[in-house]
Write a structure and sequence with these properties.
CATH topology of the largest domain: Aspartate Aminotransferase, domain 2
CATH class of the largest domain: Alpha Beta
EC number: 2.6.1.76
Strand content: 15-25%
CATH architecture of the largest domain: 3-Layer(aba) Sandwich
CATH superfamily of the largest domain: Type I PLP-dependent aspartate aminotransferase-like (Major domain)
Helix content: 25-40%
Number of domains: 2
Number of strands: 17
Distance between the termini: 33 Å
Keywords: Aminotransferase, Pyridoxal phosphate, Transferase
Strand order of the largest sheet: 4-12-11-10-7-5-6
Radius of gyration: 21 Å
Protein name: Diaminobutyrate--2-oxoglutarate transaminase
Largest sheet: 7 strands, mixed
Number of helices: 14
GO biological process, one term: ectoine biosynthetic process
Family: Belongs to the class-III pyridoxal-phosphate-dependent aminotransferase family.
Mean pLDDT: 97
Length: 416
């Protein structure tokens, strides 16, 4: 471990909670150098929805590399990009009657968010953006401006402006009607709220504490945006690609956002890829107005296309994710009920689940106890008070039960 301490920055985080050296990975498992197995309920923070080294995706990648396929091409036309766009159109857009242009903004989710914010301001001529309490959209300056966490915002070192937070779903526990505050500010010429170009929202706030918006809340937000001609941006970086069940996390609400941000599992294999999907009439970019060196990495196109055709030509994965998610949710609810005196809360949708504790220290201890027992899971929420579960969608039923058993033991050991 000495070389990590010697050379790597103090900014590292996950390695502090999991102080081992991982060597290989397969499916839902990570293995250390001495072959100790860990069941992975972290899944690359949602970048590995199809598990580690999925054999179908791996073979497609190996075939492409061995054929001397183009690796790096900026935004030039390649066979790999064409195949990916065809798969996206045929497997995702067509069956859902969706019509979007595809922007390749760079390798990560923050790139997708930055492109959406930039384009919304260009299209509307307005500067202001509405975000929500406890939101997380990335660590670059524009994405940080619409992020809620004070620690992450503080790292910017400069004022983060042109964004105004509004209460997320259930923020006031049902004490006030949804969007009462938002609409009042929009209607009041004395509110000081600049007319917004866009609203950016996560349907389930992952880093914010696995806060799942009600479907009616999402539909109401969509209606407000349409009625007031405000662009709606859905950040589906962590919750997209099936994490909540359907391919897009907003599908159950029956809405069609103006822009969609995708990254993490869109690459299929854990390779960097990000997309900003935009309504065709919003595609007003000038050539080269938004670019980047790594805006399209061909090996990621290959695994992304293979993932779409392998997992999304029918509803098998969606049904499996919903069923496993219900099982996880039921067990977390049982755990919460067993410790009702401490106010534990089970949260989430699909296979994005969380167990909220009274404070971050308790959640940290539960995750540490799980690590000792061979399970990886992280914390989230404004104070790290939520133990967060993001297993691969391909996790088996037996692995789900094994992981839930560890969680039960870890909670009991921490709270005894």
């Amino acid at each position: 471990m000495s070389i990590f301490e010697k050379l790597e920055s103090q900014v590292r985080s996950y390695s502090r909670g999991w102080p081992v050296v991982f060597h290989r990975a397969q499916g839902s498992w990570l293995y250390t150098e001495d072959e100790k197995p860990y069941l992975d309920f972290f899944a690359g923070a949602g970048a590995l929805n199809y598990g580690h080294n999925n054999p179908v995706l791996k073979q497609a990648l190996l075939d492409y590399i061995s054929s001397d396929g183009v690796t790096h091409s900026l935004d030039m036309h390649t066979v790999a990009k064409r195949d990916f766009l065809n798969a996206l159109d045929e497997v995702v857009f067509g069956p859902r009657d969706l019509h979007y242009k595809v922007t390749f903004p760079g390798p990560g989710g923050a790139n997708a968010v930055e492109a959406a914010l930039k384009l919304a301001r260009k299209v509307t001529g307005k500067e202001a953006v509405i975000n929500f309490t406890n939101a997380f959209h990335g660590m670059t300056l524009g994405a940080l401006s619409v992020t809620g966490n004070s620690m992450k915002r503080g790292g910017a070192g400069i004022p983060l402006v042109h964004a105004t937070p509004m209460p997320y779903a259930s923020y006031f526990g049902g004490a006030y009607p949804d969007f009462l505050y938002f609409e009042r500010l929009l209607d009041d010429s004395g509110s000081g709220l600049n007319e917004p170009a866009a609203v950016i929202v996560e349907t389930v706030q992952g880093e914010g504490g696995i806060n799942a918006a009600e479907l009616d809340w999402l539909r109401s937000l969509d209606e407000i945006c349409k009625r007031r001609e405000i662009l709606l941006i859905v950040d589906d970086v962590q919750m997209g690609c099936g994490r909540t069940g359907p391919f897009f996390s907003f599908e159950d609400a029956g809405i069609k956002p103006d822009m969609i941000c995708l990254s993490k599992s869109i690459g299929g294999y854990g390779l960097p890829l990000a997309l900003t999907l935009i309504r065709p009439d919003l595609d007003v970019w000038a050539p080269g107005e938004h670019n980047g060196t790594f805006r399209g990495i061909s090996p990621a196109f290959v695994t992304a296309a293979e993932a779409l055709r392998t997992f999304w030509t029918d509803d098998s994965l969606e049904k499996s994710t919903r069923a496993k998610g219900e099982r996880v949710g039921a067990v977390l609810t049982e755990i919460a009920d067993e410790h009702a005196d401490l106010g534990l809360v089970a949260k989430g949708r699909g296979l994005a689940r969380g167990l909220e504790f009274p404070d971050g220290e308790t959640a940290d201890k539960v995750c540490a106890a799980a690590f000792e027992r061979g399970l990886l899971m992280e914390t989230s929420g404004p104070d790290g008070e939520v133990a967060k579960l993001l297993p691969p969608l391909t996790v088996t039923d037996d692995e789900v039960e094994h992981g839930l058993g560890i969680i039960k033991e870890s909670v009991a050991a921490t709270l005894r």
